[in-house]
Write a structure and sequence with these properties.
50% helix
Amino acid sequence: MIWADENLVGDHGARYVDSYQALQEIVADMRAEIATGHRRCCLDTEADSLHHYSEKLCLIQLAYSDRFALIDPLAIPDMSPLLAVLDELEVWFHGADYDLTLFRKTYNWVPACIRDTQIAARLTGSRQFGLAALVEQHFGKTLSKASQKADWSRRPLPPVMLSYAVDDVRYLLPLADKLIGQLEILNRLPWFQQSCDALRKSVTERTAVIREEPWRVQGSGRLHPRGLAALKALWEWRDTVAMGRDIPCFRVMSNKQLVEVALALEAGRELPPPNGWRPRWKQEYRQVVEGVLASPESSWPKRQRNHGGRLTEKARLLLDKLCGEREKSAAELELEPSLLGSKSVLEQIVSQPEAISELMAWQYDVLRGPIDAARDELGFNNSII
């Protein structure tokens, strides 16, 4: 086989692919396997978001049949042959959201058919659904976490990191077979397929939208105009500092710290700069704060309106009842309640007639009775998804 050559990494049987020619050879081998009916592969990715300002896709781990490849996207600008063949396959991930987002950001691409062992594990009722926990449970193997926070942009990658990378895909297809078997016994395979398709759709739609005001971080909804002005100014300063030093923004100030400073300024207090900062950062920080305090109110950002509106008392009571029915059904199915529909989705269902479409068909089937009853009481027209 093409993959069994002098480019194998250590004792792990993975080929390191860092040229376009080598990539084409991998793709040719995959197409030969497709011709024999082999239609599955699995992927994982590694990036450098903990070490650099701009996150980059640094490594793609591929498992196909009984072979493994570590593909270097930093050395191969054109990945189109690989992406094209992957669109002909059922592509398995574990915790696919981050990987899909990274592929979408880097290549404006998401696989045509995705499957996720984490989703499968949760739908079987597993409460420990991390990859390491599942591999230990099903195969009795312990996966190393030593390189979890490593800088994957470094080259050459040391053996310990290469071994870690291969292990992230080594057990995925055998694990997928075990979980699919359990889902078939539970008659939940359609639930799994719908959930994977919904994840793919969610990532595609979410990453297509460019945030106009990215400085409105989690927690900013508590702020009034003065605090929002401080948050915006500090966010922009932090971004400039992080870009100049090529470090992640959180290494300058975390989003939580930004909001805390903004809340303090809004209340008329000024928080000192964090301990350990260099003198220049402290000086610039104070200049930013002084600039905000001296700025006219007319220049301050406005609070965003809550377009959803507040629930009526009747809707609130029905939401509580619906959540109770969700908890009951989840207990009977031995599943986490959130899998049947998040509280935010249930809140939409009792406040917006069209929000029924936010549920997957299988979720609606499980909660059909209480949902229809609640919507009947509110005068909504029920429609099957």
